[in-house]
């Protein structure tokens, strides 16, 4: 016999036991009660059996709606950080942008996407590239950027970061492909960095990504491992070249002032010599101008005086003496230089008399003998017999 046969008040599982706890109500019963409440709310007349529950159902429905409204309103409050900007999407479309602070939006209507506009982001790339002189180098570069227009960053392209990466890679390969390997590895690194930066700005400007490039860093540039040692030697040679150039420039800066000083000194000496010759010539001219009237007044006396002065000037520096013996023109040579040197040495050693004083005394004695009428006149600076023997 089936357990649910009509007329039976018990089922095989004893579910109609009054002492046991009842389970949750059937879904049909819940839907039926909810239908009655909604019907009473919208003016549907309830049946005679439900008239007593009309007032309680309306109050419960209003309370539930009020609770839902309060929860919906409370869940609409949100906060945007100081470094962020909020992009508002209304039903999935861009609506507006909000600044940092506390804001409210209708839940399930607006969606808020916070975007950090102050942080610096990094986009690296690296790879082997072909240079203009058909060499392969490994180049790494890093771009630092920040977002300045969040709505364009989100909606101008599908993925702004990926677009920036593609622009960086294509720009770097183009610049390296138009540069030689030596430039990329050594002296042209800064040029590669600047030109790559300019090209990236041109590319992302046409896409309007809403980002700003802050800096571009060329990280590593090196040849393949197979030829790395040879390129290291080449780079060391270039560094030595630069060092030798700097040393030569330092030597030039050291010697150039000395050479300029010597040039100025020689110029000043030449000018002084020139001025000295000019002044000497002017003095000779002035002396000749003073001597000319005297010569015109008495030519013989002036001629004789000039001759004596000239001979005194010539013979003043010699110690040789010629003696006229008045016997037919033969001259006797008296080596007074050796005699006077010997006597001067002895006298100087004994009495402390100098050679100059000894010579002057000998000259004075010879003059005295001549004035006394001696037979051996001493001619030091003039010819007293004929005027020409000396």
Question: Can you walk me through this structure?
Answer:
The chain has 390 residues and is an alpha+beta fold. It has ten helices and eleven strands. The protein has helices at residues 27-41, 54-74, 150-155, 160-177, 181-185, 189-207, 228-297, 299-315, 336-351, 355-371, and strands at residues 77-80, 84-90, 93-98, 101-104, 110-116, 121-130, 136-147, 211-222, 321-324, 331-334, 378-379. Helix 1 packs across helix 2 (54-74), helix 4 (160-177) crosses helix 6 (189-207) and helix 9 packs across helix 10. The longest helix has 70 residues, at 228-297. The model is unreliable at 16-21, 48-52, 347-356 and 373-390 (pLDDT under 50).
Write the layout of secondary structure elements.
Blueprint (H helix, E strand, L loop, with lengths): L26 H15 L12 H21 L2 E4 L3 E7 L2 E6 L2 E4 L5 E7 L4 E10 L5 E12 L2 H6 L4 H18 L3 H5 L3 H19 L3 E12 L5 H70 L1 H17 L5 E4 L6 E4 L1 H16 L3 H17 L6 E2 L11
Antiparallel strand pairs: 1-4, 2-3, 2-5, 6-7, 7-8, 9-10, 9-11
Helix pairs in contact: 1-2, 4-6, 7-8, 9-10
The amount of beta strand, in percent, is: 15-25%
What's the count of strands? 11
Estimated structural class: alpha+beta
Question: What share of the residues lie within helices?
Answer: 40-55%
- Taking pLDDT < 50 over at least 5 consecutive residues as the criterion, the unreliable ranges are 16-21, 48-52, 347-356, 373-390
Give the overall shape, derived from the CA principal axes: rod-shaped
What distance lies between the first and last C-alpha atoms, to the nearest angstrom?
187 Å
Query: Radius of gyration, rounded?
Result: 63 Å
* SSE pattern: HHEEEEEEEHHHHEHHEEHHE
User: What's the main sheet like?
Assistant: 3 strands, antiparallel
Strands in their spatial order, largest beta sheet: 3-2-5
The count of helical stretches stands at 10
Q: Give the mean pLDDT.
A: 75
